[in-house]
Every structure is written in structure tokens, then in C-alpha cells.
Amino acid sequence: MAQRHETDIVVVGAGPVGLFQVFEAGMLDMRCHVVDTLDAIGGQCVALYPEKPIYDIPGYPVIEAGDLIRRLERQAAPFGPVYHLGQQVVALEGEAGAFTARTSSGTAISCKAVVIAAGCGAFGPNRPPLAGIEAFEESGAVAYLVARKEDHRGKKAVIAGGGDSAVDWALGLHGVCETIAVVHRRDRFRAAPESVRRLRALADAGEVELVVPYQLHALEGENGALSAVVVADLDGARRRLEADLLLPFYGLRMELGPIAGWGLNLEKNLVAVDPATSRTSAPGVHAVGDIAAYPGKLKLILSGFSETAMAAHDIHDLVHPGKPLRFEYSTTRGVPGI
Ligand SMILES: Cc1cc2nc3c(=O)[nH]c(=O)nc-3n(C[C@H](O)[C@H](O)[C@H](O)COP(=O)(O)OP(=O)(O)OC[C@H]3O[C@@H](n4cnc5c(N)ncnc54)[C@H](O)[C@@H]3O)c2cc1C
Predict the structure, then answer these.
(1) How far is the C-alpha of 3 from the C-alpha of 186, rounded, in Å?
(2) Ligand 1 centroid to 42 CA: how many Å?
(3) What percent of the chain clears pLDDT 90, i.e. is strictly above it?
(4) Nearest CA to ligand 1 atom 3
(5) How far is it, in rounded angstroms, from Cα 47 to Cα 142?
(6) Rounded to an integer, what distance in angstroms lies between the CA atom of residue 278 and that of residue 287?
(7) N or C end of the chain, less CB within 10 A?
């Protein structure tokens, strides 16, 4: 049933940066509703690499991506964010101080300001064009991310691709899967040199098979249970790899989606912002995190965090007109309930 809500700020996207936006807004007495197309919060961190260690979050020498999201959720919780998951923000109407964000589920949220923290937009994996792949996707025999390594213990895995994800997961699933074959259309991998060196060492030791230069050709199996992956070389010669799991890592399909139609200045499919304030070209609409483009932008979680603080300070006057904003450290201001 269609629902109506009212809040100070609608945050579009519940990735790490959207979550931290809730905290920064909350510290300045502004409440948020957060909408995400995915069924869970966490953006790329949860959808793509929940068990991977991140090494460049200040204060954490190493932290798994899923753990970072749990901590960000906890940090935002005192400010009572309302999450609307499994729905996309499809339309933005109105003007600064009086917007309505509408979602694909018919939810309408009135708000004074909007922060777009939509990462690379609506994202999804590039799927290999293999006949009948849908049935194997449904059963989980073909998957585009590894949520829990343990789910794949003892499996015969074929990993397809030549980038960081393919190489990292071949290394990460070694010792978990019974066999691992890495299929790539050339013998050169586009991944971190140290990871490629480790992969080749495992291949030399007979622990991982490098199936190069080959491409995915067909899937064999019944009722969603995969039994083999057929690969072909450039001359069409085929090989049959026994497998009950296929992990294709062909990168992400990124689409700005409905945001492209909101009349904002765009830059190469990203939203152009003023780096001092995170303002977009539309008054009352800010953008932070991976989706925000400005000269020198680094698509890092830590850059996104800092952008949320600037956006919150810039939005304050719109949400609390006439109320002076004094810059305060969190140590001075404190957090409710903590
Ligand atoms: C394998 C991998 C490893 C990485 N390692 C690191 C690392 O070590 N250090 C680092 O700093 N960064 C790393 N990154 C990058 C990091 O994950 C991103 O910089 C970060 O996720 C960006 O956060 P975000 O909140 O801006 O966007 P995202 O995490 O992309 O989240 C955006 C969310 O917005 C949602 N969305 C989009 N459009 C809409 C809409 N219209 N309505 C509703 N919801 C919408 C999406 O569903 C998504 O959940 C890595 C990325 C990958 C893929």
C-alpha cells in the first residue's frame, strides 16, 4: 500500500556513505529517511564484498566490509533513521525546502533536502550470455558475489574473469572449494601484481587450474543443479569443466537510472558537485560518495565520509532556517543516548 512520510532529509542510497550521512545530519539535529533499491543496507560493501578486508578506513588497520556496515548502522542508530529498502527512488518533485521523493513501491516522502548517495547508481553484474543461465542463477549455482565463503565449502568452482575480483576470489576460495578453475580469455590478468603472483604460484603447485585463453560457452545440468561448464578457445575448440558452482566476475553494469532525469548537471554519468559543499546544480540537492564528481575526486569510502560532513553543514540552514550553526566537535556535542 502506498505510504506517506515526512522528514528533514531523504538520503538516496544506503551504502557506507549514505549511512554516515545519517550520522552527520543527526549531529546537526536533522532526521533522515534512507531509501535503497537493494533489500539490505550496505551498498557495494555488502552486495559485492562483505567478507573482504578493507585496509584504508582510518582507525581500523583492517576491517571486513560487512563489519564496517554493521558499525555504521550502529553509529547512525541514535538518530533514528527510517530505512525503505527494496525500493528505488524513481522521482524527485518540488523544490528546496519542499521536496517529495517517490519510490518504486509507491512510497512518498516529503522532505526539505535530498542527499544523493547512490554510488554508481543502480548497479548489477554483467551477466555472461549463456543459454538457460537463469535457472542456475535462481538455485545459486551461478552467483555474482560471494556472501559467505563457507557456503561454497567442498564445491567444484569455475571462476570466470581476469580482473581483481576473479583473482581475489580464486585466492579466497582456495582451501574452501574442492577444485578451482579460472577461465579467462587471455593469459594476462588485470589484477594487483602480488595477487596474480600468488595465483600463478597456486597454479604451478597444481592447486588451481588456469584455463586460458578460453571463454564460457555453455552450462550443463538439470533443475538448477550445475554439473559442468563448457568453455571454448578462440578457434572454437571446447573443454568440459566439471563444476557445481560458476562465479562470473565480468564487472559491474552501472546505470544512473532515474537520477539521470532529475535535471542535475552530470559528468560522465556521475553527478557534478561543488567540492566545498557537495551541492549539485539543483538547490537543496546534494550528492556524496562515489556518485559525486569534482576535480581530483577519489572514489574511496573515506572521501565519501568527509563529503557527508560538508553536505550536512551546508543543508543545515535549509532544515533549520534562521537557527545559527555553531561548528562543534563531536566530543563537545555528544551523541544522544551514548
Ligand atoms: C571489490 C571492491 C573492493 C573495494 N575496496 C575498497 C577499499 O578497500 N577501500 C575503499 O575506500 N573503497 C573500496 N571500494 C569502493 C567502495 O566500496 C565504494 O567507494 C563505496 O561503496 C561507495 O559508497 P557509496 O555509499 O557512495 O555507494 P555504494 O556503496 O555504491 O551504495 C550506493 C547505494 O545506492 C543505491 N541506489 C542507487 N540508485 C538508487 C536509487 N535511485 N534509489 C535507491 N537506491 C539507489 C544502490 O542500490 C546502492 O546500495 C571497493 C569496491 C569494490 C567493488
Answers:
(1) 52
(2) 8
(3) 88
(4) 49
(5) 15
(6) 6
(7) N
Task: Write down the residue that cell numbers 565480468 correspond to.
Answer: 250
Residues 27-51: tens digit of each pLDDT: 999 999 999 998 899 999 998 888 8
Comparing CA positions, the residue from 112, 118, 114, 90 lying closest to residue 102 is 90
Q: How far is the CA of 45 from the centre of ligand 1 (A)?
A: 6
How many angstroms separate the CA atoms of 90 and 48, rounded?
23
**Going from the N-terminus, what domains does the chain have, and what CATH number goes with each?**
4-123+253-333 (3.50.50.60), 127-250 (3.50.50.60)
Whole-model pTM over 0.85: no
**Ligand 1 lining (C-beta closer than 6 Å):** 12-18, 35-38, 43-45, 48-49, 54, 56, 88-89, 117-122, 165, 257-259, 289-290, 299-302, 304
* 3-state SS assignment for residue 18: helix
Residue 251 pLDDT grade (very low, low, confident, very high; cuts 50, 70, 90): confident
Scanning the structure block, which residue is given the C-alpha cell 518504486?
104
Instruction: Cell 546505470: give the residue.
Output: 255
CA gap 21, 148 in Å, rounded: 28
Q: Of all protein residues, whose CA lies closest to atom 48 belonging to ligand 1?
A: 43
Do residues 251 and 163 touch, judged by C-beta distance below 8 A? yes
Q: How far is the CA of 149 from the centre of ligand 1 (A)?
A: 21
Cα of 237 vs centre of ligand 1, distance in Å, is 39
From the CA of 313, how far away is ligand 1's center (Å)? 23
Indicate which atom in ligand 1 lies nearest the CA of residue 47.
Answer: 49
pLDDT confidence band for 117 (50 / 70 / 90): very high
Q: How far is the CA of 18 from the centre of ligand 1 (A)?
A: 9
Residue type at 201 in one-letter notation? A
Helices (H) and strands (E) in the chain, counts: 8, 23
Instruction: Indicate which atom in ligand 1 lies nearest the CA of residue 288.
Output: 26
pLDDT tens figures, 135-176? 999 999 999 888 789 999 999 999 999 999 999 999 999 999
